[in-house]
Amino acid sequence: MSAWQIALVGLAAFCAGAMNSVAGGGTFFSFPALLAAGVPPVVANASNSVALWPASLSGAWAYRKELARYKRYLIPMGLVSFVGGIGGGLLLLATKDATFSRLIPWLLLFATVLFAFSGKLSLLLRGAEAGQPSNSPTALAGQAVVSVYGGFFGAGMGILMLASLAMAGHDDVHEINAIKNLLSAVIYSVTVLTFVIAGAVSWPYTLIMLATATLGGYWGASIARKIPALWLRRFIIAVGFMLTGFYFYKTF
């Protein structure tokens, strides 16, 4: 690794950690940075998942009290997330770099649009009619789709999961966020294990990202109340669309 590659990946991971702690969307910084450093697309996606994995665990732990009353409900949902995460991770590993490169702009576009409309989605969720959480086949199928997508790419998974949980009967936004954090941690944990066992992780870059992303997350949390979240969200959306356009240009 050259000095500029270390600096690029380290700074991008720092920004990713900070953005995830404040407004989300950190993958829009860290994943393209790995590609720019010359890491193959599939390995870059796997390494990015490993680097940002600790944040998902801490987010789930923070909501442990709110989740305690949903143990029976969360077991089937967790199992579906576990299997779906493995499926998505294996699907990524089976995808050739050339094929994944062609998918990158479409995946980035999809994730950016989801992030851009996440505010409106949150309003819809707040206005949803109250219901009882249900492990119906539809709810489990929805979570399975989200889990496979999360294991395969990850960016935008949170927004997809919000919609899936709303369909399952949840109407409290904080409750939805708590369950989302736990199920996301399950998906990321199993995909990380899959990538590590398969040897699909670039450890030199990943270790740098783990350190700087952790610092970024701490820094982001400390200033979260000082910077308007709307500005950060708009910045992330702008970056997402610019990267989407850039990768479409590279593809065609």
CA radius of gyration is 17 Å
Pattern of helices and strands: HHHHHHHHHHHH
State the end-to-end CA separation: 29 Å
- Number of beta-strand segments: 0
How large is the share of residues in beta strands? under 5%
Fraction of helical residues: over 70%
Q: What can be said about the biggest beta sheet?
A: none
Morphology: globular
Structural class: mainly alpha
Task: Please state the average pLDDT score.
Answer: 82
- Residue stretches low in confidence (pLDDT < 50, at least 5 long) are none
Provide the fold topology:
Layout: H1 3-22, H2 27-36, H3 41-62, H4 64-67, H5 71-94, H6 97-116, H7 118-126, H8 137-152, H9 157-167, H10 173-197, H11 203-223, H12 229-251
Helix pairs in contact: 1-2, 1-11, 2-3, 3-10, 3-11, 5-8, 5-10, 6-12, 7-9, 8-9, 9-10
How would you explain this protein's 3D organization?
With 252 residues, the chain is mainly α. It has helices spanning 3-22, 27-36, 41-62, 64-67, 71-94, 97-116, 118-126, 137-152, 157-167, 173-197, 203-223, 229-251. The chain is globular and about 50 Å long.
Give short descriptive properties of this protein:
81% helix, 12 helices, 252 residues, mainly alpha
Summarize the entry for a quick read.
The chain is an all-alpha fold.
